[in-house]
Amino acid sequence: DPTGIAPIVFTVVFSEAINPATFTNADVVITGTAGGTKTVALSTADNITWTASVTGMTSNGTVIADIMADVAQDAAGNGNAASTSSDNTVTWDVPVPPVIIAGPYVKEITDTTAVVEWETNELATSCVLFGVTAPPTVLFCLPDYRTEHSVPLTGLTPDTDYYIQVTTTDTAGTGPTLSGTVPFHTLPTPDLEPPIILEGPVVTSITRNSAVVVWTTNEPTDSTVHYGPTIQRTLTVFESERSVSHEILLTGLSPTTFYYLNVSGVDAAGNGPVVSGMVSFMTLSAPDTVLPVIT
Fold first, then answer.
1. Per residue of the chain (295 residues), what is the pLDDT tens digit?
2. What's this model's pTM, rounded to 2 decimal places?
3. Number of CB atoms found within 10 A of residue 188's CB
4. Which of 139, 202, 206, 265 registers the highest number of CB atoms within 10 A of its CB?
5. How far apart are CA 169 and CA 96, in angstroms?
6. Residue 273 and residue 266: Cα distance in Å, rounded?
7. Which residues, other chains included, contact 154 with Cβ-Cβ below 8 Å and sequence gap of 6+?
């Protein structure tokens, strides 16, 4: 006392067993300032000690139980005396459902999972409604009561619109409090496959000091050419822009020189690098600029 949990239970104790046919729900008089149409339910195990359960309170106030004289009779037909207990008043406070004071937020979204978080002003259940339509209808709850709620969702479909609502009830069973609807979108299925070189590398447009290396990949990747006059290929040209058709110009080459090269690439998801086999080519000779001599 005070309480916000129904029913309010009063205990009625007679000095001896009474005839249960003579004592009914209506014989317990309920008064007080609490609003509502109140009802009484009686029960007993021995016809001496009875419980009177009162429900129907709708506003704050007092609930008072009294038993008038001669409403119940013993086996000899003697009527009871009126109740004189001073402990027959209970203060009723209308139960207030929990309040969501933060959230709900959808975090840690992946292609198949997400985490829903929110806070309540009192200990309450952690339940999430989710689905691909609004309002969502699939219910998932965690056990126990808490004020900081974090509910993982699993088994979601990649690259899909979802909707969530949270619903929460306090330890007294007051509620549920239902949040607004929050949308979110799962990520696409992650790319875990390395790229593939479909054609090349091929060396074209060879001059005495330059050449062009071309190749194609099955998905956009960056472009790297490792080259040099030895198989160690200590020189590198890198192009960060991703493409499936790759073309890299090599300059500053030496005339009449064998060069060795291979190519590599990494896709947007970081898979790779895919590395080609080694190819070689020879630059052209320097032009003959010596004038002929008459001997």
1. 688 888 999 999 999 999 999 999 999 999 999 999 999 999 999 999 999 999 999 899 999 999 999 999 999 999 999 998 888 999 998 888 999 999 999 999 999 999 999 999 999 999 999 999 999 999 999 999 999 999 999 999 999 999 999 999 999 888 899 999 999 999 999 999 999 999 999 999 999 999 999 999 999 999 999 999 999 999 999 999 999 999 999 999 999 999 999 999 999 999 999 999 999 999 999 887 778 888 7
2. 0.60
3. 10
4. 265
5. 10
6. 5
7. 112, 113
